[in-house]
Amino acid sequence: MRYQSNTETINSLRYTNTYLTPTKTIQGYPGALKQRINNVKINNKGSDEYYTPPEALEPLLSRLDKQLVYYEATSGVSSAIVDYMKENGFSVVGSEGRDFLLDELPEFDAVLTNPPYSIRDKFIEKCYELDKPFALLLPVNTLQGVRRGKYFKTGLELIVFNNRISFTEDGVKPHFGVAWFCKDLLKEKLEFIL
């Protein structure tokens, strides 16, 4: 994002797993960026948080076992993934303010989340440490890297979108593609969504 003044209106703000109403006002940049999402104040300075649209979930959900209990690790402010999964007959537990990386977690069978990309390595590491099935929506370039590679060698399944997914209500698509990085959830190791 580029900022031209201390008060600027933008058409989208990124925060994990839900949509914002377009046209939010940011005041006081370069100080803390303050936003209201469903009347909850958010400090979104330098954020890399994104909303997860249904079109990113549909290809994954059609391949998942409805008998499992899924944990959405980043549903603190928004609950779009939780809501969408419940609407589609899945059992899912939201994070309810828990820190996925530090706090004790509730009982669940598999992790399903769109983590902040700036700390994706920590989420990947935690998922492999938990030794439970998982699905993480991540940029395709997450495949690269020595640190990640040591985990991926122990098991990885991918659902790759051939088209970029828009994470904002205005339909603007990011410069990168995303994929579902999974372990022990899918029948196929690699699938392309046309």
* Helical content band: 10-25%
Give me the CATH architecture of the largest domain, please: 3-Layer(aba) Sandwich
Distance between the termini: 30 Å
Structural class: alpha/beta
The structural domain count equals 2
Number of strands: 11
Q: What is the CATH C-level name of the largest domain?
A: Alpha Beta
User: What's the CATH H-level homologous superfamily of the largest domain?
Assistant: Vaccinia Virus protein VP39
CATH fold-type name of the largest domain: Rossmann fold
Average pLDDT: 77
Low-confidence spans: pLDDT under 50, at least 5 residues?
1-46
Strand content: 25-35%
Q: What gyration radius follows from the Cα positions, in whole Å?
A: 17 Å
Kindly report the spatial arrangement of strands forming the biggest sheet. 6-5-7-8-10-9-11
Secondary-structure element string: EEEEHEHEEHEHEEE
Largest sheet: 7 strands, mixed
Note the total helix count.
4
Q: What is the overall silhouette?
A: globular
Helix/strand layout:
Elements: E1 7-10, E2 24-27, E3 34-37, E4 40-43, H1 54-61, E5 69-72, H2 80-87, E6 91-94, E7 110-113, H3 120-130, E8 134-139, H4 146-152, E9 157-161, E10 178-183, E11 190-193
Parallel strand pairs: 5-6, 5-7, 7-8, 9-11
Antiparallel strand pairs: 1-2, 3-4, 8-10, 9-10
Characterize this entry briefly.
The protein has 194 residues and is α/β, with parallel strands linked by helices.
